[in-house]
Amino acid sequence: MNDTVNDEKPLKVGLLGCGVVGTEVVRILTEQADHLAARVGAPLEIAGIAVRRPGRARDIAVDPDLITTDAQALVSRGDLDLVIEVIGGLEPARSLILTALEHGASVVTANKALLAEDGPTLFAAAEKYQRDLYFEAAVAGAIPILRPLRESLAGDDVTRVMGIVNGTTNFILDKMDSTGAGFDEALEEAQALGYAEADPTADIEGFDAAAKAALLASLAFHTRVSIADVHREGITEVTATDIASAREMGCVVKSLAICELDEATDSVSARVYPAMIPVTHPLASVRDAYNAVFVESKAAGRLMFYGRGAGGAPTASAVLGDLVSAARNRLKGVPGVGESSYTQRAVRPMGDAMTRYHVSLDVADKAGVLAAVAHAFSEHDVSIQTVRQEGRGSDAQLVVVTHTATDAALSATVESLRDMDIVREVSSVMRVEGE
Question: What is the pTM of this model?
Answer without folding.
Answer: 0.90
